[in-house]
Amino acid sequence: MARARTVAGGQAAANAAPAAEATVSKMQAATSEAAEEMKEAAVSVADEVVEAAGTQVTKAASGIEASQLQINEGITKTMKTAEEVVAFSQGNVEALIKSGQIWSAGMQDLSKQMASSMQASYEEAMAAFKAMTSVKSLKEAVDLQVGFARSAVEKSMTESSKYTDASIKLAEQAIAPISSRMTMAVEKFSKTA
């Protein structure tokens, strides 16, 4: 009996072995299929992640390019503005130099005219002095002195008026380059405002 059990058990085991093998084979097939599905799902997820990352990298790159373009535009505008300021300032300096040259040349001319006028007045005074030394009467001396004084006052008034007009004209000429620059500045800044 024991033997019969052993034989029956061996036979049952022998009969169970093919069923177990079939079950193991089915389990391996199911595991293999599940592993394949998991692998495909993992590859699909990885592809989606890579695609999303690529999209984000592309967006970031285009954002960086746009930022870089804005920065370059800002730098270009700043440089252009700086160049305009330098050029405008240079024009201002040139206007000041020109104004100074006009003033200097005008003052030289006025000084020459005044020196010439003073020389003429001196010569007239010397001529009057010589004439005074040769007078024969007091009446002749008074008449000569009155004539000289009247002539000197008239010339003084004429010369004074002449120098005042020349000084005003010189001031207008000397300020013209600066005034021109101011007008240009007002026009330029009113356009940008």
Outline the structure in words:
The longest helix has 132 residues, at 2-133. This protein has 2 helices and no strands. It is rod-shaped. α1 (2-133) packs antiparallel against α2. The protein has one domain. The chain has 193 residues and is mostly helical.
SSE blueprint:
Layout: H1 2-133, H2 138-192
Strand content is under 5%
Distance between the termini: 117 Å
Shape: rod-shaped
- SSE pattern, N- to C-terminal: HH
Please outline the major beta sheet.
Answer: none
Low-confidence stretches: none
Radius of gyration: 57 Å
Q: How much is the average pLDDT?
A: 83
Domain count, please report it: 1
Helix content: over 70%
Number of helices, where a helix is a run of at least 4 consecutive DSSP H or I residues:
2
Q: Helix/strand-derived class?
A: mainly alpha
> How many individual β-strands?
0
List keywords for this structure.
193 residues; mainly alpha; 97% helix; rod-shaped
Quick structural gist:
The protein has 193 residues and is an all-alpha fold. It has helices spanning 2-133, 138-192.
